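Table S2 (text version). Query chain:
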Amino acid sequence: MDVQTLYEKALRSYLLRKYTPAAATCLRAIAASEPHDQSSLLKVNIWTLYLNIASTLLEHTPFLGINIKSLGIDHAPSEQELCRAIWNKVTHEGFGSVSDTDARIVSSCLVMYLKLDQLGVARDAAEAWFAALSDEFLDHIAANQDQDQIALGYISVVDLYITRILPGMEDFESAKTFVQYNSVLNEAKKKGLLANLQDQQTLVENERQQKKKLEEAAKLAAEEKQKEIERRQLEEAAYLKQEQEKTSKEQEEQQEEVVLEQEPEQERQPLPAVSSSRSMMSTTKKIQDWIHQITTKGMTTSGVVLVLLFALFALLRGQRGRFSAALQAFLNKLWQTVKMGTKVTYM
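Corresponding structure-token output:
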């Protein structure tokens, strides 16, 4: 089966979404194509189909679920390494070197890397291709800009590199430097690219400022929320402390009331009563001394006895509520003794 037939068969399988058979047939077409025919349109189409199959598989299938051998790659531990391996396969196996790789194939590689968000691989591939271009190639583009497929392919790679890859990495300075010092691009093209870069940079800076404002607002909101939490905690702590002090004070007052209720009644009498009791005790002492003097001196006349009786009677009747229990008991005993003595004397 010739190369053209294999290519058409692989293309039909790809359109029918039979990606594994399409990849196998495409590899057969690559192996059957002429290795030194870099400018062949059929060869460019075969490698473009190969890149489309690889891009579709990588974009819609988890990396671990891809049989990388179906793409002609022996080993790749990650998606990034697989993308680099595909670049090496296309440039060296397909076209012999990076410098001889068709610009249309380079553009297809860059588009695949952009879809897979492999900006680092895309940048390395584009810069490696730019660095490998010969002076004759660049002179041809400068002389035939916008006039043939080679020049259009170069412009396509430049557009992807300047307007998508470097801005995607937010490296606007490198993009501006590349455009300003590019000797191949005409002034109109440079002006358009620089304007595009400025618009993208302004958009990125605005988004960055907006993001910063949102972050600051979120930070302030978080700080205010934290302050509110701390304020509530302080209020709760103060309230709890106040309640504890109030409870403690109430307990102390209750304890004092209990102690006062348990004290004897005589311990809570006012000071004047104590003074009155002492005065009464002093009076009692004086009476006892006076009676003792009368007894020791032998004063037993009836007049003295009568005076003493009337005095005792008056004291017992008039002062009953004002003597202590001990004094009243003493006077009662004394009264009984006097009465007995009087009766004996009378008899």
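Notes on Table S2: The mean pLDDT is 82. The chain is about 80% helix and 0% strand.
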